């Protein structure tokens, strides 16, 4: 059984392993192994993970069974959009998918931003499992971008939103 808890500095190595494994399983078919390795190194370095864990206004959660992390989620209040929380990451280890971990992580995140009226995210259009997950949890498409994860990334994404409260 996995329990959702706040991530701490002691989790960064396990988080990097989880994100590397999950990113390769999810994105290698779309971008190739080399590009995914580049994304993991840039987005999920130990300093980047530590910075997100320490960020004020953010919530970094893990699903932990005492032996391994089965999933993680990170969201933070937007600095550009009023009353909007941005879901930056929600990933479940491939061997732990379909166990309710994503649902539990998301349910906890929804309660972490009492001032937010909207939760917003970006998702790779070809990641049909993730798109379906978010639709099942009340998200709708509001836009598209070619800058997923940062300016000029060149990565496509569907922008989705959900009203909170």
What does this entry look like structurally?
The chain is α+β, with helices and mostly antiparallel strands and about 160 residues long. The protein has a single domain, classed as 3-Layer(aba) Sandwich (Aminopeptidase). About 35% of the residues lie in helices and about 30% in strands. It is built from five helices and seven strands. The protein has helices spanning about 10-30, 35-45, 45-55, 100-110, 130-135, and strands spanning about 5, 60-65, 70-75, 85-90, 120-125, 140-145, 155-165. It has a seven-stranded mixed β-sheet, sandwiched between helices. Strand 2 and strand 3 form a beta hairpin. The two termini are about 30 Å apart. This is N-acetyltransferase. It comes from Ciceribacter naphthalenivorans. GO terms for molecular function: acyltransferase activity, transferring groups other than amino-acyl groups. Keywords: Acyltransferase, Transferase. It holds the Pfam family Acetyltransf_10.
The CATH architecture classification is: 3-Layer(aba) Sandwich
Give the overall average pLDDT. Answer: 94
Low-confidence runs: none
N-to-C SSE series? EHHHEEEHEHEE
As laid out across the biggest beta sheet, the strand order is: 1-2-3-4-5-7-6
Q: What percentage of amino acids are in beta strands?
A: 25-35%
* CATH fold node name: Aminopeptidase
Residue share in helix: 25-40%
Please describe the biggest sheet, giving its number of strands, its sense, and whether it closes into a barrel. Answer: 7 strands, mixed
Rg, alpha carbons: 15 Å
Give me the secondary-structure category.
alpha+beta
